Amino acid sequence: QPDARHAPLAQIPPGIACARDYELLCEHFIPAPTLAYLAGGAGHDRTRDANLAAFDDWTIWPRLLRDVTHGHTRLALAGAELSHPFLLAPVAFQKLVHPGAETETARAAAALGACLVASTLSSAPLEDIATANADGRRWFQLYFQPERAATQALARRAEAAGYEALVVTLDAAIRLPSLSALRAGFVMPADCAAGNLQTLAASAEAFPAAPPGQSRIFQGAMRAAPGWADLDWLRSETRLPVWVKGVLHPDDAADCRARGIAGVIVSNHGGRALDGAPASLAALPGVRAAVGADYPLLFDGGIRSGGDAFKALALGANAVLVGRLQVWALSVAGALGVAHVLKLLREELEACMAQAGCATLADIGPHCLAAAHEPL
Ligand code: FNR
What top-tier enzyme class does this entry carry (predicted)? Predict the structure, then answer.
């Protein structure tokens, strides 16, 4: 029985009052099994849910009588000037929710001045995404391939297509399927196969196979997982700065800095990697402390509002990435929806900054927050 849903709209729907409203609306646009796949975390969704709950551990001090009329949300990040601190996180297989897939997202990113991080597992080829992104800022999220030549080929293509950094995601060597997606009977459609890769078909997120009698984890998935030598090799191979995504432990972050990694993204893959890992927000202060004040540090996991972004910035992030919200908006209204969600997030952040007495991102710090469960 086909699951009847609305086709994506060609306009921003009425009645959207905040960025998170797209989460409510997208149920009418995404078939239930697909929604289960996109929304799901790994295992029992503990880390996915913890990502959201962690924002409730902090409250924001309102501050009075400050002049913020010269305020703005600009920042310098990795040598680039950005007008606001929202990036679009790499999210695979966007054709699942819109026929234009990542080219829609890329257009929205360029229009709203948001840096786009395109996934290795995009439905559209990275060159098409670059064309749609035009003179926007874009980074390429790189998954190490089983063969170095294939990894190198992806890096070369990203360089040629105007991507300004490589973001190596390291927390997803083992892809445990979402239990809710399994229970909902989700199957990746054949036409959503990874547009950048010939060998990796639509089953990219499925559990790996292993030779008979061997562990599907240790001799299967982990055999292809990269190590420090591979990261060092990649850095020597490319002229682009190399970032690492998926850092939670402070020691891993410090190692990245010491080994010449350009910056790290505190992330647990939106709760889709190790179920039971700390919430991203809970890990953030320790990572900032480990790398020092001047090291580029991005954050993702559970950002649903400008106020959430404020808390992440206060706890040490230079900027934040938006994962699922981007997909919900894409499903509802394509590029317009993604642009709208970025605009709403920025306005929500500005309102939060103004009420907290912060005129610029540099004014936002731990002093702006109070722990919710401790006496003030
Ligand atoms: C992801 N994420 C992800 N990360 C990555 O490095 N490469 C990828 O291909 C994908 N694919 C992907 C697909 C889907 C459906 C989701 C929900 C997430 C993780 C993503 O970049 C980001 O870390 C999280 O989505 C952030 O959490 P929120 O914003 O979704 O709560």
Answer: oxidoreductase
- For ligand 1, atom 29: residue with the closest CA: 323
Ligand 1: distance of its center to the CA of 99 in Å? 19
Which of 337, 327, 325, 328 is closest to 10 using CA atoms?
A: 337
Give the pLDDT confidence score for residue 202 in this predicted structure: 38
Of 263, 253, 348, nearest to 80 (Cα)? 263
Task: Indicate the angle between helix axes 324-355 and 32-39, nearest 10 degrees.
Answer: 50
Closest residue by Cα to residue 272 from 355, 343, 215, 204: 204
Q: What are phi and psi of 75, to 5 degrees?
A: -155, 160
Q: Set out the domains of the chain in order of their start, with CATH numbers.
A: 21-371 (3.20.20.70)
Question: In this structure, are residues 124 and 95 in contact, taking their beta carbons and an 8 Å threshold?
Answer: yes
| Predicted model pTM | 0.97
Give the SS3 label for residue 358: coil
CA distances from 334 to 95, 110, 171 (A): 11, 14, 29
The pLDDT score that the predictor gives to residue 207 is 57
Q: Do the beta carbons of residue 100 and residue 129 sit within 8 Å?
A: no
Residue from 70, 84, 249, 269 carrying the catalytic annotation = 269
Residue 129 contacts residue 103 (beta carbons within 8 Å): yes
